[in-house]
Design brief:
single chain, mainly alpha
Length: 111
């Protein structure tokens, strides 16, 4: 018997094995997949703590989409007009408050 036959008798495994491929380089798909998975995980985690104000406005969408185009435009106009009114009122109050502080400071400085 030859040397190869003897080795096969001693070992239950064949003498010549198919070489095991060692993964030295990632394929292009693997290079993209890893960062993509991390990106998706980060987006999923961020959405769990999503802004409550954004959630409120998103909750209006189903009803908003039921409106025809004209009513959607009117709704948008109403919301913007109302929002501007609130902002104007708030800015006027803040300005009046700042004027009182400034006037009070001036009175103290002039005495």
């Amino acid at each position: 018997t030859s040397l190869i036959d003897r080795q096969e008798l001693v070992s239950s495994e064949p003498v010549f094995k198919k070489p095991i491929k060692t993964q030295t380089k990632n394929s292009a798909a693997e290079q993209v997949a890893g960062p993509m998975i991390e990106f998706l995980r980060s987006k999923t985690n961020k959405s769990a703590v999503e802004d409550v104000d954004l959630l409120f406005f998103k909750s209006l969408l189903p009803d908003f989409k039921k409106l025809n185009r004209k009513n959607q435009r009117q709704f948008k106009q109403f919301v913007l007009t109302t929002l501007n009114s609130y902002i104007d009122s708030q800015e006027a109050q803040e300005s009046a408050s700042n004027d009182k502080v400034s006037y009070g400071t001036m009175v103290v400085l002039h005495h």
